[in-house]
Design a protein that fits this description.
With 711 residues, the chain is α/β, with parallel strands linked by helices. The protein has 23 helices and 30 strands. It is flat.
């Protein structure tokens, strides 16, 4: 679906219909059409309902039409509860009757092979020509909870929604949308809409996210997506959500090869690069959930708490063992627990008996049962402590009497007007009998209730990991000049990149041994010889690199050895020539590369070179809008990042020179969308203020230059 189609889709015709047609209406209990009608009647839908069944005169006291052609013009939404072979012709008939939107339950389209894909494309063409919204095919429909309109066959109840802030659900999987609806509703969270997009023939997740971002009462958008078909459009919507103070929480299957293969058969999606997707989506402010449980947990905290968790976490507990377990978990999660001590926490120290030590996590022991006001004093002190951005209260609930003693002072601390940061309640004994009114009181006070502390801390970690880093000012740089289609060999790649500020060893391109001798004399021995050809991307594998030639005699021998190596490895290959380069001093090797992802845009890869990158996967992906400080932090975040600042007596390395290369490469990729890939490997980093030198360079240029799809 083209990016500009968003301008013509009137989603209100689908999401807020005033009239609905059920094509395939049925009186048979459990049939899709029957379940849909039951949902609408039970929800008190006040609009017109048109039933279409050629074999029935009436259903549930409602008259049936014989065909779509009998519909009045301009019905807002038609729901198709019919077999797949009949769908396309019915969609054409609905377009003739100027129906505004269509929900298609049937499967067997793009996920079913080429024939199904062809029919799905035909449906999309009809929808585009008619300006008609199509949800699906292969979907479970949608529910408008705010107005009580369930266009789904899944049994759905839409209780009156009275709150001003709600959660919207957008999911390609209908089954998971249904599961998430139950999960969130069971926690007393109000929903605005739930939309399952299925195969996305003529509307997709991007359309519905844009709608919910602008929907006044939707504060949180919970998503389950297997592939973004219009990535740039989604990124714009995500950035818009962040501007408006709304939170998008995303569960995206596809890390494993098996999950990617499943996505292709499930929704007809062709999976992209998961890590690249994750990089860009997080940069736009989206919160990632790793599991379905986390999706619900994160959404609840984002919904209930007036501010999102950020910064350090303070944990209040009642057990030394819980304290130790929390320290272990938070270390694994890399969740910050700022330390506390008697000397730096006078208010907290004064709130507690002398035998209870000040620490984080805090172990109150069982003293709260003797002195329940202890909970209020401790929480009041922590709420005013600016070292923390969120407080987790881990409580042994016991039985109704025990939690009845502990909960009131906790609620009192929150209600006293100093509730300036998120507070999350976590029971340590899952399954304890906690009176419903206590859970309701916590939730009414904007305190999420969790049955375990582990779940609370994991959800907080995801929210604290939201990318809040500033965007660097755009680099104004001309496109890289002199690039032709295909692989650009090293000597030409270096000539193209050197003007950008990427430093290379002194060298000269030659075509004969005599030219090589003259070059070596000018450069100074020792030198290296490197075979040059667009058809020889991996020179070393073919013996095309000869190093450390110390004099004229060694150069002659090296020249002959290089020619013989190439002849043996690649018979008939004609070289462009040979690059003669000075041998430089050693240092720490990095790999720096960049590519234009066709969906998401330019991305930089940096890591420690050689076997470290492959064996430890010690690499980071970076967007090209990071500030220098953010790039430095990413470099130091590598597993071997300590080497950059000097490790066990080794010298501090020239990080600024590495950052210069990364910034230059990012600007080049941004200014030159035709560049598919750039590799600088290895980049030798020298001690501080002595620079960094890229020993090799390779550029690949797209055959048909184009910017990011859908941008």
């Amino acid at each position: 679906m083209a990016d500009d189609q968003a301008a013509v889709l009137n989603l209100d015709r689908l999401l807020r219909p005033r009239s609905v047609a059920i094509v395939g209406a049925s009186a048979t209990p459990g049939a899709l059409g029957a379940s849909l009608l039951t949902n609408l009647e039970r929800s008190g839908f006040a609009g017109d309902i048109h039933l279409i069944n050629p074999n029935r005169a009436e259903i549930s006291g409602r008259a049936c039409l014989k065909s779509v052609d009998d519909l009045p013009e301009g019905v807002d939404a038609a729901v198709l509860a019919i077999p797949q072979p009949a769908v396309l012709e019915v969609v054409k008939a609905l377009a003739r009757r100027k129906v505004g939107s269509v929900v298609i339950f049937s499967s067997g389209f793009a996920e079913g092979g080429e024939a199904g894909m062809a029919e799905q494309r035909a449906i999309a063409a009809v929808a585009k020509a008619a300006g008609m919204v199509v949800e699906g095919p292969n979907c479970l429909g949608m529910v408008n909870f705010a107005e009580g309109i369930p266009l789904t066959f899944v049994e759905t109840r839409t209780p009156r929604q009275t709150g001003d802030e709600k959660i919207g659900i957008v999911s390609q999987s209908g089954a998971m949308a249904s599961v998430l609806m139950v999960t969130l509703a069971s926690r007393g969270l109000e929903l605005s809409f739930s939309v399952s997009t299925g195969n996305e023939a003529a509307s997709g997740v991007e359309d519905y996210v844009e709608y919910l971002v602008e929907h006044a009462s939707t504060r949180v958008i919970a998503m389950i997506v297997e592939q973004f078909r219009q990535p740039q459009r989604f990124l714009r919507a995500a950035r818009r959500a962040r501007e408006k103070g709304k939170t998008i929480v995303l569960l995206h299957p596809g890390k494993s090869g098996g999950a990617r293969a499943s996505a292709a058969t499930h929704t007809g999606a062709l999976a992209g690069d998961y890590e690249t997707m994750r990089l860009f989506v997080r940069r736009a402010g989206v919160v990632f959930a790793e599991t379905l449980e986390e999706l619900g947990d994160i959404s609840e905290i984002a919904m209930r708490c007036e501010r999102l968790p950020e910064g350090g976490v303070a944990v209040v507990g009642e057990s030394g063992a819980f304290k130790a377990l929390t320290l272990d978990l938070c270390e694994d999660l890399e969740l910050s627990l700022p330390p506390l001590a008697d000397a730096d926490s006078p208010q907290l120290r004064a709130a507690m008996p002398e035998f209870v030590g000040v620490s984080n996590p805090l172990d109150l022991t069982a003293q709260g049962l003797v002195d329940p006001a202890l909970y209020e004093r401790v929480l009041t002190a922590l709420l005013s402590d600016m070292r923390f951005g969120v407080i987790v209260v881990g409580i042994i609930q016991g039985d109704p009497r025990t939690i009845g003693v502990k909960a009131p002072p906790i609620l009192a601390a929150i209600a006293n007007g100093r509730h300036t940061k998120p507070v999350v309640f976590a029971g340590l004994d899952e399954g304890a009998q906690v009176p419903a009114d206590i859970v309701a009181a916590l939730r009414a006070a904007h305190v999420p209730y969790f049955p375990t502390a582990e779940r609370a801390l994991r959800a907080i970690k995801r929210l604290c990991a939201v990318d809040r880093r500033p965007v660097a000012p755009p680099q104004t740089r001309a496109a890289v000049a002199g690039l032709s289609e295909g692989v650009i060999p090293e000597y030409r790649a270096k000539a193209a990149l050197a003007p950008l500020g990427v430093r290379f060893p002194p060298g000269r391109f030659v075509r004969s041994l005599s030219e090589a001798q003259a070059a070596a004399e000018d450069l100074g021995y020792p030198v290296a010889l490197k075979a040059q050809s667009a058809d020889l991307s991996h020179k070393s594998d073919a013996g095309g690199v000869i190093l450390s030639l110390k004099d004229w005699s060694a150069l002659v021998q090296g020249w002959g050895r290089l020619a013989q190596n190439i002849a043996n490895a690649r018979p008939g290959l004609a070289l462009d020539g040979v690059l003669v380069e000075s041998m430089g001093e050693g240092g720490v090797e990095l790999i720096i590369g960049g590519r234009h992802d066709p969906d998401w845009g330019p991305v930089i890869l940096v890591g420690f070179g050689g076997v470290l990158a492959e064996m430890l996967h010690d690499v980071r992906l970076l967007t090209t809008d990071l500030t220098r400080d953010a790039i430095a932090a990413e470099l130091r975040g590598l597993k071997c990042g300590a080497l950059l600042d000097g490790f066990r007596g080794s010298p501090q390395l020239d990080i600024e020179a590495v950052i210069d290369i990364i910034v230059a490469l990012g600007a080049a990729l941004t200014a030159t969308p035709s560049i598919r890939e750039v590799d600088l490997n290895p980049v030798v980093v020298h001690p501080k203020e002595r620079g960094a030198v890229a020993l090799d360079a390779l550029i690949t240029v797209e055959a048909s230059a184009s910017a990011v799809r859908g941008s």
